[in-house]
Amino acid sequence: MILVTGSTGTFGNAVLNKLLEDKIANRAVSRDIFDWNKPETFKSNLIGIEKIFLIAPPNFTDFNKKVETFIEEAKKSNVKFILYSSLYGAEKTQNNSFGKTEKAIIESGINYTIIKPNFIFQNFINYDAEAIKNGIIYLPTKNSKTAYIDVNDVATASKTILAKPEKHFGKEYTLTGSESLSHEQFAEIFSNVLEKKITNISPTNDEYKATLLSYNLPKELVDFMGYLYSAIEAGSFTKTTNDYEMITGKKPITAKEFIELNSSKFI
C-alpha cells in the first residue's frame, strides 16, 4: 500500500491518478484526515503502509521539522520506502526547508529516492492563464531559460519508481523537459499554437510581487514565487537532464505539445 500525501494538490493528484490508472493500491490523504500540524493524525494513516509519496504543502517553510516527527512514526509502522518530491536545485543549499528535508530522509534509515522536478508547464494554467488570455506572459525572468516539465511526466516517473523502488534506492533524479526555453520563446510558441499574439513582458521581481499581492494572494506564497523567479533570472533552472527518459524509457512532453493539449485553457 502506498500513502500519497498532498493528494489534492497539483503534484500529488497527478501521482494519485497514475496509480489509479494502473490499479496500484494506495491511500490518498489530504488535510481533512492528515494534517502536518497535527502529528496525532500520522499513526492511523500509516497503518498498513509500505511506501510513501511525500511532498511538502505550499508555504511550509519548516516542513523539515514536521517530517522528522513523521519519519519516526513511519519507522514504527515499518514503512519500507519513501519517494520524496523535492525542488530542482535543492541540493545546492541545506539552508532551505527542501534541503533540510532531503537530509532528514537520507539519514532516516528508510530506503528512499528523491526526485527534483523543475518548473512545471501547469504553472501556466494555475497562475498565468488569465494573463495569457489577455495576450501577455508576465513573469520576472528577463531572457533566462527554464527546462520546464509536465506534471504528468513527473507523475509517470513517480509511479514507475513506486512500482519497483528497489531499482532506485538511494538515488536522486532531477526531472526536466528536453528543452530549455525563455519566456520570450514561450510567447512565440503560444502565439503560433493559439493563433493570436502573445507578448512576453518581464517586470522586475518587486513589480511582479506587487502585482500578486494586489490579487490578495498570501504574502508567504508571493515571497516564495518571487524567490523562485529570481532563481530563474539567475539561470538556476536552465539545465536539462535525461533522468525522466532513464526512469521511464519515454520522451518528456514538449512545450508545444503541452500548449496544444491545453489550448482551451488559454483562449
Task: List the defining traits of the structure above.
267 residues; alpha/beta; single chain; UDP-galactose 4-epimerase, domain 1; 2 domains; 42% helix; Rossmann fold; two-stranded parallel ribbon; six-stranded parallel beta sheet
How would you describe what is shown here?
- The chain has 267 residues and is an alpha/beta fold.
- The chain has 2 domains: 2-117, NAD(P)-binding Rossmann-like Domain (Rossmann fold); 119-148 and 177-238 and 253-267, UDP-galactose 4-epimerase, domain 1, CATH 3.90.25.10.
- It has helices at 10-21, 42-46, 63-76, 97-106, 123-126, 129-133, 151-163, 183-194, 205-214, 219-233, 243-248, 255-261; strands spanning 2-4, 26-28, 51-55, 81-85, 111-117, 136-138, 145-146, 172-175, 181-182, 199-201.
- Strand 1 (2-4), helix 1 and strand 2 form a beta-alpha-beta unit.
- It is globular, with a radius of gyration of 19 Å.
Number of domains: 2
Determine Rg (CA atoms, Å). Answer: 19 Å
The first-to-last residue Cα distance is: 41 Å
Q: Judging from the principal axes of the Cα atoms, what is the shape? A: globular
Approximately what portion of the residues adopt beta-strand conformation? 5-15%
- Main sheet makeup: 6 strands, parallel
Task: Return residue spans where pLDDT drops below 50 for at least 5 consecutive residues.
Answer: none
CATH topology of the largest domain: Rossmann fold
The class by helix and strand makeup works out as alpha/beta
CATH class of the largest domain: Alpha Beta
Total number of β-strand segments? 10
CATH architecture of the largest domain: 3-Layer(aba) Sandwich
